[in-house]
Amino acid sequence: MSRLEAKKPSLCKSEPLTTERVRTTLSVLKRIVTSCYGPSGRLKQLHNGFGGYVCTTSQSSALLSHLLVTHPILKILTASIQNHVSSFSDCGLFTAILCCNLIENVQRLGLTPTTVIRLNKHLLSLCISYLKSETCGCRIPVDFSSTQILLCLVRSILTSKPACMLTRKETEHVSALILRAFLLTIPENAEGHIILGKSLIVPLKGQRVIDSTVLPGILIEMSEVQLMRLLPIKKSTALKVALFCTTLSGDTSDTGEGTVVVSYGVSLENAVLDQLLNLGRQLISDHVDLVLCQKVIHPSLKQFLNMHRIIAIDRIGVTLMEPLTKMTGTQPIGSLGSICPNSYGSVKDVCTAKFGSKHFFHLIPNEATICSLLLCNRNDTAWDELKLTCQTALHVLQLTLKEPWALLGGGCTETHLAAYIRHKTHNDPESILKDDECTQTELQLIAEAFCSALESVVGSLEHDGGEILTDMKYGHLWSVQADSPCVANWPDLLSQCGCGLYNSQEELNWSFLRSTCRPFVPQSCLPHEAVVSASNLTLDCLTAKLSGLQVAVETANLILDLSYVIEDKN
Amino acid sequence: MLSSMAAAGSVKAALQVAEVLEAIVSCCVGPEGRQVLCTKPTGEVLLSRNGGRLLEALHLEHPIARGLHAITDREKDPLMCENIQTHGRHWKNCSRWKFISQALLTFQTQILDGIMDQYLSRHFLSIFSSAKERTLCRSSLELLLEAYFCGRVGRNNHKFISQLMCDYFFKCMTCKSGIGVFELVDDHFVELNVGVTGLPVSDSRIIAGLVLQKDFSVYRPADGDMRMVIVTETIQPLFSTSGSEFILNSEAQFQTSQFWIMEKTKAIMKHLHSQNVKLLISSVKQPDLVSYYAGVNGISVVECLSSEEVSLIRRIIGLSPFVPPQAFSQCEIPNTALVKFCKPLILRSKRYVHLGLISTCAFIPHSIVLCGPVHGLIEQHEDALHGALKMLRQLFKDLDLNYMTQTNDQNGTSSLFIYKNSGESYQAPDPGNGSIQRPYQDTVAENKDALEKTQTYLKVHSNLVIPDVELETYIPYSTPTLTPTDTFQTVETLTCLSLERNRLTDYYEPLLKNNSTAYSTRGNRIEISYENLQVTNITRKGSMLPVSCKLPNMGTSQSYLSSSMPAGCVLPVGGNFEILLHYYLLNYAKKCHQSEETMVSMIIANALLGIPKVLYKSKTGKYSFPHTYIRAVHALQTNQPLVSSQTGLESVMGKYQLLTSVLQCLTKILTIDMVITVKRHPQKVHNQDSEDEL
């Protein structure tokens, strides 16, 4: 199609980062994300003047998908965070805050972009190699033989999303459910290549969170009337299932590109119905107990099947097809003619269930890798938030299964990492610089900017005016409540570090975060017994955090490297 | 409604446009270049350092600017705008544009090739470790690609991306694979890479086999002897084909036809199964029935492939589509091919089809998975990789040079006439150590074993003659006293030189002597070192016997020559090409007796320097542009090898093509005397993109 109007010339701006407008928009975005961060983060209410429902959230994925950013630089930033979140689910806010901080800190220095980018890259690889190394002092192995660490991981995710509006008891309940749902998806006889099953989240709004539950198998929602019509099956053995992906409604489609001329008096409907009933007869003779169809079943066929004590359920929808295929072991049937005997599958049992006001038809599998998580919450927005959180938690558990390590949460990893980098750049700058043209002073400056960006991330965990301290032995984070008596006795004021691994009874020295202190070596290699004894740790997903760190630094580098912005005004 | 407006096509306007564009593109040039962020009208963001892309994003209105765009689009560097700008500057006071444009055209068609062939070629290195077999060693390709990506992708990724490209090149190609592989990869580059957003760039990798951006519609794990077929239509027979009519007379007839269709489909799929076909690749959506019987028979199905994907697969395995037989027989299906594997590949929770095709051509199928935090970055990397491929494709071709040499006896000095064997494509002997020989490395060591090789050379070139005038032209140029009188003062270096006159004069004095003593040997070098660096090494040391043969047909005033630049010619990066060409053009200008030729050569020579100036903009001290320039000129005068401060190589071919395009564009711009703006919708589609609506 040709254009009706000549294209307008684009707008070209040089050195975009130096303009006031960009700085302001960046700092607005930074304020939005920092204020959401952490368990005590503030919620954001997003509503669109053109319609749609109001969304209350503090999660990056919901926040950024609703925000409309116009500036190209912000677009790059939000797009890279959204892409990170869609692949790892977790650590979106962390990435966003770190990226904003890095850009801000580095800009203040006024070094050339080449130097900044090169050194940022070196520091990033230093972080990555430390977090992946055996001596890393802020990661712990995940033991799949006990639920303790896994529960800590799930709980940390739930508590960091305040918009779910969960009480302590509810958090415990939902954590346990999520873990159960995850464990149900792992096949029992796992040999070599594991293919995980699937947890289907079934919405049940307006119920108490505590009523949420996990069931093995699949729930198909139905009206009460429909459910009443289904006759109970009394059978001791497994039920034979036929799953159709083609329509059984009797319409003749796809006759080719030419024309089909039907003579007067010939009824195609009758012809097709005959065919359908023949199919029904074959199903009966094959002793099928349950017929499921993705699309519509012709009422006559349905009735015919019911008469022969076969349960027929139609309009399953395409989303349930894959889990159904997996669970029943069927081959979706696309033929109205002869059916191969090996395309039938089986389920252990079926039953009807009622949860809240909804009625379900429940397929109970022989061997479960598919389960349904019935999730309840009081209202729509809280439910949406909880659903997103559950998906995040399930994804994080899957990532942890692949890479069985967890990072200490609550900001301890960040402060520890910052201490490590400070120490490394002060004591061994040559190993970082190697053959580069950068000077040591430049390295010190960038390292300081990098570390303070990391520390600012944890600084934004505190929203109530409290103080954040770090200890000089482990490099962990400790927070003090606001309006507590001045520097009296630290061990009394502080009880536990951010992740909950250490308590203040040890002989420790503290200093305020962001205050200038001499670099120290944070203790590496976690003591094994400390990890085992600690029951209530705050943990983060290693894979997601590593990637978040990389994405944040890469995106910041990308933005710092921009010399022009060309905006297409068409 | 038609409204038109005419404006004088002044060079001034063109100059302004070029200046603005130069400002934008010059910040992207070279290893220190930065990124530009563009937004598309759809709101997508794109990162780029590609001049063509940028100019496209600008939606230029000025016709001259659009003319410039046309070149940069095709070619490698965006930096030639700079060139034009400098050109333009000289014409501020000149009114004979048409005349100059003619002179430019003459220069481009008749002189430039000669300069390339006679002077520049002696500096060329070859990317091939063995020129005859055109084998390519990894280290030289790495140097070439690293330099290329340095100017194309972001600073923190260029090393990684160039490694990726290098790996890809060596994984996909066997030593014998020729230019055809480049064509295949170039044509199907889009299908050969997969972009994955949300992962760090460092997760990008090369995967053996072909990755299709589709999921299986039916997947049945299989192993052992696996065959595949390609279909381009539905396997299930339909009631009626296009243009035909199917008349249904009874219900029974309908039922039997349906039954027949089902049985036929079932039979075809069974037959495929019996032939060990485990994979069905279809360019159209297959009906449910086909999918069902495929599943029953353990055949995996991939549907809805684009025609490009199908043609790529067909080119790799040389397979024609399977046509369901009309009359059904149990005979073997001819159009099947073996596959090593076919399995789903999961990249960031999205499923792809991963095929292990057995290639019947020189291309060994591999796919590139490009990761990046945002799509814009992935697109940039994809573009850069594709560009690198195009550059390599060009590099592997020979270039024919046609030019005219003129010999004039007016000054009484011995005339320059060079005889070239156009038919003789002379390849240098294998240096034997498998890597590019740099003239400034280990010259002494190589000298010894290279000595005997040169003997053979001399025989080959025994009918060659030496330009005598060269010495005279070298000396005046190098003397700083000449600089202030130079009419083209845009070269800051020269001004710079004159400031330091005292010191420099001293400096050049021994040099002048040097020149005269080195005279006899230099003459040889020019001829012998033609197209091969190995020889350049030797003669540069002055260890060779002088060859002096007089040409019989001296006194001819003109002759047309043709020769060729062998494939794989490269030069070290860092403005070497430009400085060399600048130097030789100035020399040439000194020798010319026609005023317009001199002028055009001088103009182009000075304009060329604009590029190294941009490249060295951020460098200070020893590596700043004036220092580098003086070093280079000095080295050329004393016959020493040029020392580059950067490692890396660039294709001479690309540079040459770019220069000719620029000259042609410039010629066109200068001939335009009026710009008429037509505010009407273009009538035809092909008119839409026409640059000059004159």
Model description:
The complex is a heterodimer of chains A (570) and B (694). Chain A is of the alpha+beta class and 570 residues long. Chain A has 3 domains: 12-138 and 408-568, GroEL-like equatorial domain (GROEL, domain 1, Orthogonal Bundle), CATH 1.10.560.10; 143-216 and 374-403, 2-Layer Sandwich (GROEL, domain 2), CATH 3.30.260; 218-255 and 262-367, GroEL, CATH 3.50.7. Chain A has helices spanning 20-36, 60-66, 72-88, 92-109, 113-132, 148-159, 168-184, 224-229, 268-285, 299-307, 318-328, 380-402, 412-427, 429-433, 440-459, 490-493, 528-533, 542-560, and strands at 11-14, 44-46, 55-57, 139-141, 198-205, 213-216, 218-222, 239-244, 259-262, 290-293, 311-313, 345-347, 349-355, 358-364, 370-377, 405-408, 467-471, 477-480, 510-512, 539-541, 562-567. Chain A is 43% helix and 17% strand. In chain A, the strands form 7 sheets. In chain A, strands 11-10-8-12 form a 4-stranded mixed β-sheet. In chain A, strands 4-16-20 form a 3-stranded antiparallel β-sheet. Chain A has a 3-stranded mixed β-sheet with strand order 5-15-6. With 694 residues, chain B is α+β, with helices and mostly antiparallel strands. In chain B, a hairpin with a 2-residue loop joins strand 14 (337-347) and strand 15. Classes of the chains: A alpha+beta (570), B alpha+beta (694). The interface between A and B is large, with 75 and 75 residues. Strand 21 of chain A pairs parallel with strand 2 of chain B. Chain A: It comes from Homo sapiens. Chain A: InterPro entries: Cpn60/GroEL/TCP-1 (IPR002423), GroEL-like_apical_dom_sf (IPR027409), GROEL-like_equatorial_sf (IPR027413), MKKS (IPR028790), TCP-1-like_intermed_sf (IPR027410).
